[in-house]
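Researcher: I'd like a candidate sequence for this fold, 192 residues long. If you have to choose between options at a position, lean toward the conservative one.
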C-alpha cells in the first residue's frame, strides 16, 4: 500500500522573488522535480504541481508551489490536501527559517509558526499545526537590518557558492523523510 505525500515549497510568485531567501522552499521542490525530469503544471487549487513517485512503485509525491503570496499559502495547500486526500501528517512544508544558520536543515512535526506567516496560514487552513516541516536555515540579518528586507533579498555572493549543495541536501532530507520517517531523517540531517 503506497502513501500520498503533499510536499509544498513555500515562496512568493513571480521573477521578482524567485532568487530570494524567502523562496528557498520552492527551490527545493524544483530540485525534487528536476531529479525526476518532471515539469510543474497549473492546478485548479491555485498552485503548480508535479505528481511523481519517490521511486517506481514507491510512495506518491505531489510536489507543489502555491501561486499565492507567502502570507496566504494556506488556501492552496488546504485545497490540494483535500483534492489528493492527504492528511496533515503527510503534508511536508519546506520553508526558510531565520532562527537556523544558513546551510543548516532542521525537521519537525507540529509546533508553533515562529513568526513565519506562511506556516501560520497553513496551520490555520489545515486547522492543525501538526504537519511536517523541513526548515531551511537562512540565518538572521546582519546588524539592524529588518528581517522582512532580509528574507526578500537575494542570497549574497558567499551564500551563492554553497546554495546548490544546500538545496540538494534539503531535497535529500525531504526524500529521506518520506522514505524513512522523521526520526531517521533528523538523525542524518541535523548532525551534518
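Model: Candidate sequence:
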Amino acid at each position: 500500500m503506497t502513501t500520498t505525500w503533499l510536499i509544498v515549497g513555500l515562496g512568493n510568485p513571480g521573477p521578482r522573488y524567485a532568487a530570494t531567501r524567502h523562496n528557498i522552499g520552492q527551490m527545493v521542490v524544483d530540485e525534487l522535480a528536476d531529479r525526476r525530469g518532471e515539469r510543474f503544471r497549473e492546478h485548479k487549487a491555485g498552485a503548480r504541481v508535479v505528481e511523481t513517485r519517490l521511486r517506481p512503485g514507491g510512495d506518491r509525491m505531489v510536489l507543489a508551489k502555491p501561486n499565492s503570496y507567502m502570507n496566504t499559502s494556506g488556501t492552496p495547500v488546504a485545497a490540494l490536501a483535500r483534492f489528493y486526500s492527504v492528511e496533515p501528517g503527510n503534508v511536508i512544508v519546506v520553508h526558510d527559517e531565520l532562527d537556523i544558520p544558513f546551510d543548516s536543515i532542521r525537521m519537525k512535526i507540529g509546533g508553533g509558526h515562529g513568526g513565519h506567516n506562511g506556516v501560520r496560514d497553513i496551520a490555520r487552513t489545515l486547522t492543525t499545526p501538526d504537519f511536517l516541516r523541513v526548515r531551511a536555515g537562512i540565518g538572521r540579518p546582519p546588524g539592524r537590518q529588518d528581517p522582512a528586507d532580509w528574507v526578500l533579498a537575494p542570497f549574497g555572493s558567499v551564500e551563492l557558492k554553497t546554495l546548490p549543495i544546500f538545496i540538494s541536501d534539503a531535497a535529500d532530507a525531504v526524500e529521506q523523510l518520506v522514505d524513512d520517517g522523521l526520526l531517521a531523517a533528523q538523525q542524518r540531517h541535523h548532525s551534518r
